[in-house]
Design brief:
51% of the residues are buried. Strands 1-8-5-4-2-3 form a 6-stranded parallel sheet, sandwiched between helices. It has a two-stranded antiparallel sheet with strand order 6-7. The protein contains 16 helices and 8 strands. By secondary structure, it is an alpha/beta fold. It has 2 domains: 169 residues, Rossmann fold; 204 residues, Dehydroquinate synthase-like - alpha domain (Dehydroquinate synthase-like, alpha domain, Up-down Bundle).
Amino acid sequence: MTFTYTTHNTIVFGEGAEDHLADFLRQYHATSVLLVSSGDYVERLGILQRVRDAVAEVGGALAENRDVVPNPRVDLIRSLIDLARERRVDLVLAAGGASSYDTAKSVAAGVPYDGDVWDLFTGKARPGDVLPIGVIATLPGSGSEVSDCAVVQQGSDKRFLEDRRIIPNFSLVDPRNSATVPYHYQAAAIADLATAFTEPYFSDDIAIHSVDYFLEGGLRALLDAGRRWIADPSDVDVRRELHWISSTGFNDFYFSFGRTVDWTTHRIEHELGGEFDVIHGEGIAVLMPSIIRYVAERKPARYSRLAERVFGHDPALGERALALLLADDFERFFSDLGLAVHLGDLGIGEDGFPRIADAVTGNGTGTVGNYSPLTRDDVIAVLELAK
């Protein structure tokens, strides 16, 4: 409870956010910029031209790559590191959603590192110097535009790197840029954002109880914005809400302070996504209700508290009943978003369950999660509930 907090991230939020790009390029003395994205939306939204104009304004050079995919692959990152070294890149810029941000973070950490960038994800090495990182947000939900985490996979092996040095130096957030995001991707991102408030809430190692109220209020805000988005995905006011919730929801300091964060849903989903290449939010929507239902049988307290305080259920029902209602509430919300809520709906059968359980528990030698740690057999039981 004694600490010093600082962050190097600056958020420019609202219409015209990208007009500040040249100022940031000057601030970080950028002479060669690498822009990473996926598809042609950067061109359709006018982002590409604005980036080109800003780089030209400061007299810099620009390299571009649009090959990022959901669940970003380390092979692309390796090739981008080679390109960045060849072009003497001194700032990495991402446009899009979490996959682009995580790719940019990985490249920025990998360029100064002498070994293979995958070492930074396996724990063999830690980042040293990191190139400056900028983000132009077009998809609210992941929170990666302000977070210290990047998630990357090699084959079916999905790993994460957490280090404050890879927090983007600046994030430019204009809600108009998310107008053309495909419905399914935005729905999945909203499901992902729900875990920003539940993973730290599901904890009984709590030093500061006021954080509960922040998390409850954040989840209420997300549920409200999510329902309004379902009713009218074109509403820019709703997208503004989602962008701001995304830019604040994954703040590990404020929302995780003084407690042990659960991460059960994220850890299992990373293995699910690595094995079956599902979008992160899709996996969240399938797994979270089943994890709650399973753990409710032995440790329902935190689930029941959330069910009472956010969803308004009667505390007289008892902790276990409230916990099961919470699972139903989340499942209904995810279904209303148009997301699958069963593994079978994603084409995932029981034959993959042991591989996921082995991967997330080290072949049964460890457990996953902190609120109620799950063994290998527990993980298989959760997947059975989710099928």
